[in-house]
Each structure stands twice: as structure tokens, then as C-alpha cells.
Design brief:
Layout (H helix, E strand, L loop, with lengths): L6 H6 L8 H18 L1 H9 L3 H15 L6 H23 L3 H11 L3 H6 L5 H11 L12 E4 L4 E3 L19 E4 L4
Antiparallel strand pairs: 1-2, 1-3
Pfam family, one: zf-C3HC4_3
Organism: Ciona savignyi
GO biological process, one term: positive regulation of protein ubiquitination
């Protein structure tokens, strides 16, 4: 069968290892789970108010594409925002059957219909506006939250409202200390 092939080639020629997709997927999920539980970058993204599913999706995509953890908080946030933009683009492509549907989706996501129809994904100013909105005091909804509640570390209220609460509005942990923060 291999009469015309030199013997040294037959002996050294090896087939590539056979990978089991199920095993590879389990390994990937293990890495993602470990990253979600131990990474300070993931913890900071949670504290900023990003959804766990969005963070997980960005971490998984990074492991699939690069095989490693995020090297900076900025790269994680960029990946989360990129994934959200791609999701919005896909929704536009697949699901926009009428102006009424687009208006319903824009109301659900907190944007006006004109902004949603004008672009496939949110502009930088829209993303910045959403981040600023997420910093608004959860009690009075009028000023920027500038008090970090301890020990939970949530930044959810202003210096006026922190005096009237005894538990964190997010996690309901007992407030032991309130620390004033300042923006640079």
C-alpha cells in the first residue's frame, strides 16, 4: 500500500489530535465560570451596572477568539458594548417588521423611536448618556449618586438621600458607612 513512500515518512507522520466538541465546550464554560467568579474586572463591570448575561457573553467571546482573560477593564467594557451593538444590529436586521415594532423595542430599551430608527446601534453619545443615567441617585432621581455604601460598595445614592436610608436600595445590606466620592 505504501510501496512508493519512504519508511521514515510513514513512521513519523501522525494525524492531528481529535478534539471532542463537547469536551472543548465544557473546558470553555469552565474557564468562563472561573473568570466570572474570580475576576476583579468582571466585578467592576457588575458594579457599573452591566447585566451579568452581557458580561458573560463578552467573556466567552474573548476566550473563544483570544483564548485568554481580558487584560484591562476598558477592553472588557468595549467588548460588552460591542456585543450590545451587534445584538441591536441583529434585532434591526431580523425583527424590524414595522415602525410600531421598532417603537416598542425602543420604548423597552429606553430610547426614543427616532434614535432607534436613525442608526443600527447606539452612538457614543447615547452610550455616555446611558452611563450617566445609571449614575443618578436611585432615591431622588434628580442628582448624581456620589455616595458609596459600605460594606456592599454600591454607588446608588446622593449625599442628601444617604441620611434617610439604613439599607442599600440594591442589595438591602445594612449600611455601616457612607463614603463621599468625587469625579475627576
Amino acid at each position: 500500500m505504501y510501496d512508493d513512500v519512504p519508511p521514515q515518512i510513514i513512521e513519523t507522520q501522525r494525524s492531528p489530535p481529535i478534539l471532542n466538541p463537547t469536551t472543548e465546550q465544557q473546558k470553555l464554560m469552565g474557564k468562563v465560570d472561573h473568570e466570572m467568579e474570580t475576576s476583579h474586572l468582571v466585578e467592576n463591570a457588575k458594579l457599573m451596572g452591566f447585566e451579568m448575561d452581557d458580561i458573560r457573553q463578552a467573556v466567552m467571546r474573548n476566550f473563544e477568539e483570544n483564548g485568554e482573560s481580558f487584560s484591562s477593564f476598558r477592553s472588557l467594557v468595549d467588548a460588552i458594548l460591542d456585543d450590545n451593538s451587534a445584538s441591536l444590529l441583529e434585532e434591526e436586521r431580523i425583527g424590524s417588521t414595522s415602525v410600531a415594532d421598532a417603537d416598542l423595542r425602543s420604548i423597552a430599551s429606553g430610547r426614543s423611536g427616532a434614535q432607534y430608527q436613525g442608526s443600527a446601534h447606539p452612538s457614543s453619545s447615547e452610550v455616555i448618556r446611558r452611563l450617566e443615567d445609571s449614575r443618578v441617585c436611585r432615591m431622588c432621581h434628580t442628582v448624581v449618586a456620589d455616595i458609596v455604601l459600605m460594606p456592599c460598595g454600591h454607588l446608588v445614592c446622593c449625599s442628601n438621600c444617604c441620611h434617610i436610608i439604613t439599607k442599600c436600595p440594591l442589595c438591602e445590606s445594612e449600611i455601616q458607612k457612607a463614603i463621599k466620592t468625587y469625579s475627576a
